[in-house]
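Appendix C: a fully annotated inverse folding record. The material below is reproduced so that readers can follow the format used throughout the book. The structure is listed first as tokens, followed by the designed sequence.
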């Protein structure tokens, strides 16, 4: 349900007599503003907000969080409400506030096990009504601040080529030299030979770097800020290695549940090219050299 004032949303989610007593800014993200809201009953909720015209960001995030929570395998914040507030000039998303806690002794192993189970959850309802198309999502969403295309496809290789690499390469066209543009075309042409079809489709968080997980009060990992779609779990594992690899014990336990094919080591940089191109498009030339190195590796 979309609310049209922040006060209305708080009452609808938390109770008629509840109101906001205090708001404290929470820092860490680079797209939205975030606050810990203290309510009149002493409890906390978490709010993300942005310009009123960016409501679609929060609608997409709500859909992704609900999909991840539906799997019931790993900690995911509950969505409480979303809406727009014309008086404040904002769009907003309200979620349960995740209190941080001490990590359980087997934190990394538990994280690996729960993520592997998420990747084995049923996915058909998130892609197509008749179940004939295996990869994608029922709606487009965002990867960071960039639009993310999720057009359903029966082929993982085609989906990754057409909905991941191609859109980012097109956005990066003015940032790439002529030689690299030619190599991008060659890479797209050979992507189907580089990316085998997975044994089964997996529900993916989609943007699972270390900054998008936290240890909750239960001592286990909780994940948030998703860019959800159904794909090959190898793409998710690759992202966990892009900006700081998780402990070996995470991957060891994960592999016990979802076997990691040895060929993954040869493919992971190709999966991460999507994120590197996105960073090039969002943050500029410092990502040009990593992009060039990956493309040169495969072409």
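Designed amino acids, in order:
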């Amino acid at each position: 349900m979309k609310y049209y004032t922040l006060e209305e949303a708080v009452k609808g989610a938390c109770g008629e007599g509840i109101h906001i007593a205090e708001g404290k800014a929470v820092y860490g993200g680079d797209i939205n503003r975030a606050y810990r809201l203290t309510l009149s009953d002493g409890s906390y909720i978490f709010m993300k907000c942005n310009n009123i015209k960016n409501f679609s960001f929060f609608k997409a995030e709500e859909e992704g969080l609900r999909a991840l929570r539906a799997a019931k395998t790993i900690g995911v914040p509950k969505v409480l409400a979303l809406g727009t507030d014309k008086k404040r000039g904002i769009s907003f998303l309200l979620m349960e506030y995740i209190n941080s806690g001490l990590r359980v002794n087997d934190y990394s192993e538990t994280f690996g096990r729960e993520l592997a189970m998420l990747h084995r959850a049923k996915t058909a309802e998130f892609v197509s009504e008749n179940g004939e198309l295996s990869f994608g999502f029922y709606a487009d969403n965002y990867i960071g601040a960039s639009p993310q295309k999720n057009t359903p496809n029966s082929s993982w290789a085609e989906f990754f080529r057409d909905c991941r690499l191609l859109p980012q390469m097109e956005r990066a066209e003015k940032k790439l030299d002529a030689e690299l543009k030619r190599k991008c075309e060659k890479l797209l042409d050979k992507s189907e030979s580089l990316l085998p079809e997975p044994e089964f489709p997996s529900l993916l968080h989609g943007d699972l770097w270390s900054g998008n997980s936290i240890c909750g009060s239960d001592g286990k990992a909780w994940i948030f800020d998703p860019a959800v779609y159904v794909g090959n779990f190898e793409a998710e594992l690759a992202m966990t290695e892009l900006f700081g690899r998780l402990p070996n014990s995470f991957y060891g336990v994960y592999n016990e549940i979802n076997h990691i094919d040895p060929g993954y080591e040869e493919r992971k940089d190709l999966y991460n090219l999507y994120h590197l191109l996105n960073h090039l498009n969002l943050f500029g030339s410092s990502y040009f050299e990593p992009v060039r190195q990956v493309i040169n590796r495969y072409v």
